[in-house]
Design a protein that fits this description.
Blueprint: H1 2-17, H2 22-26, H3 30-80, H4 87-135
């Protein structure tokens, strides 16, 4: 992570050295450089977490649908057959479904937090860049 940040700073300074805007990049204060580096560092991680959370949510949704279909089939089967005792299994299935829904809720909360973190990082970076631009 630190190496990525150092590479970002070196790249930024190297690119700026060859442009007409080189002086403004060289005059960036440490907090602005840090902000830009952290944004560059965190953005891919936030996107990756979002992708994983979405994939897990889709998987949880498919699992919930399959459990509901199985539960309906078991209920139908149990209604026609009195010789089998399926109530404990149906109850276990219902409990499993509740657990899956609980995990889905937690994942949704995590995704909301990650999105908020990403938004806050972007806002802080923008404010820092604007204040730096205003002071130059």
């Amino acid at each position: 992570a630190v190496c990525s940040f150092i590479a970002f700073v070196n790249t930024t300074m190297g690119e700026a050295a060859g442009t007409a805007d080189a002086e403004s990049v060289l005059n960036m204060d440490a907090s602005e450089t840090l902000s830009m580096g952290l944004t560059e560092l965190m953005t891919p991680a936030v996107h990756k977490i979002n992708e994983h959370v979405k994939a897990t949510q889709e998987s949880q949704q498919r699992l919930t649908e399959q459990i509901a279909l199985l539960q309906a089939a078991l209920d139908e089967f149990q209604g026609g057959q009195q010789s089998f005792e399926l109530d404990p299994y149906v109850q276990k299935l219902a409990k499993s479904r509740q657990k899956v829904l609980g995990v889905h809720s937690v994942l949704q909360a995590v995704q909301d937090r990650v999105n908020k973190l990403h938004s806050n990082i972007a806002k802080a970076s923008k404010k820092l860049q604007e204040s730096s631009a205003a002071s130059n």
